[in-house]
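[step 3/7] inverse_fold.run input=structure_tokens len=354
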């Protein structure tokens, strides 16, 4: 079925993150999703904005890339099953990847996981275990299941193959933008555990591209970690962006990000909802809140400039006003009732007598 053999699994003692190798292996295994444009969004951001539609990816999110690459390498090494924990999209990706490779999958999700993500993971044939609401609770159960079954855990972000796979979305966007004669100078990626944005930094590493991460207000472990100089947990605040609420950025992503990331932009639920509506109404694109957060960050950066950047490093790029901004729309798995709620902006009250 596969046109190339996956490379051998990375030595766990010496994690190697190689976005180019992952992109080569995933070529033909995942969709090369399109770059979308909207004149209205260009005007609002004050730059050419390219939106990488990973909401259209198999499984509905860019998590398919890291999941498929990591599981493919484990299958090649002879493993017959895998275990994963996540708020939803990584679990769906690992379940689908395991099915492609004829492997067993057990995925651990929070009790308040969105029903459609639970249904997608079950639909892909995984055993779904619902546990607690924190990443620590899920990890403890995933470790126990891994010990019992002997099946390895595929971490959602603290894993070299997952970071490499996620980074392939950014690499495709960088290459497609160059091919179109509009090279990126800015790249914006939503942040949960930091795997995707770490992969983006590596994908951009030999080019003058400023990479920004976007975190929901109160779920800003990466911002705190960059300031503290080490992974620093937060108690995640409630957010509509369910994929962006791990309590702590991963150690391996942080190691990559601390010297490469231009900065973090924090966005609130209102700003994410506004980005969601823009995508829906201007591009006819359905993103989930976590997937729309990158555009929310781009709009905030355009409106408020550097005052919105809460932590960062020396600029790898020009630091001047962006001309071409790439945004990864990371996913589109969203409940119908949330779509209805977000699609309706809060209107001023009408018909009330003075
Ligand atoms: C749609 C979506 N976007 C972004 C993220 C965050 O990715 P990462 O954990 O690699 O930072 C997730 C995580 O589940 C997600 O589901």
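[step 3/7] decode complete -> sequence:
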């Amino acid at each position: 079925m596969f046109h190339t053999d996956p490379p051998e699994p990375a030595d766990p003692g010496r994690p190697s993150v190689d976005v180019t190798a992952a992109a080569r292996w995933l070529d033909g295994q995942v969709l090369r999703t399109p770059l979308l444009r909207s004149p209205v969004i260009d005007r609002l951001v004050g730059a050419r904005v390219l939106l990488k539609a990973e909401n259209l990816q198999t499984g509905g999110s860019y998590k398919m890339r890291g999941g498929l690459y990591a599981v493919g390498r484990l299958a090649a090494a002879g493993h017959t099953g895998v275990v994963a924990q996540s708020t939803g999209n990584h679990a769906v990706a690992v379940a689908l990847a395991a099915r492609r490779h004829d492997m067993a999958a057990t995925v651990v999700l929070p009790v308040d996981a969105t029903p459609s993500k639970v249904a997608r993971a079950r639909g892909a044939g995984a055993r779904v275990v619902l546990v607690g609401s924190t990443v620590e609770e899920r990890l403890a159960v995933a470790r126990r299941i891994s010990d019992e079954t002997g099946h390895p855990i595929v971490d959602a972000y603290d894993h070299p193959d997952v970071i490499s796979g996620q980074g392939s979305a950014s690499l495709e966007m960088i290459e497609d933008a160059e091919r179109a004669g509009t090279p990126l100078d800015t790249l914006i990626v939503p942040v949960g555990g930091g795997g995707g944005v770490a992969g983006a930094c590596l994908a951009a590493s030999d080019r003058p591209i400023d990479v920004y991460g976007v975190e929901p207000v109160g779920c800003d472990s990466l911002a705190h970690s960059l300031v503290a100089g080490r992974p620093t947990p937060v108690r995640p605040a409630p957010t509509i962006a369910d994929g962006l609420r791990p309590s702590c950025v991963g150690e391996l992503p942080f190691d990559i990000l601390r010297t490469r990331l231009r900065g973090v932009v924090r966005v609130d639920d209102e700003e994410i909802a506004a980005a969601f509506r823009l995508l829906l109404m201007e591009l006819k694109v359905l993103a989930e809140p976590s997937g729309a957060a990158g555009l929310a960050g781009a709009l905030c950066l355009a409106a408020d400039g550097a005052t919105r950047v809460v932590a960062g490093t020396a600029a790898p790029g020009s630091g001047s006003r962006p001309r071409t901004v790439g945004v990864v729309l990371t996913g589109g798995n969203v409940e119908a009732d949330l779509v209805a709620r977000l699609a309706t902006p809060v209107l001023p009250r009408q018909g009330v007598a003075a």
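[step 4/7] annotate
Residues 9-13 have pLDDT under 50 and may be disordered.
The radius of gyration is 19 Å.
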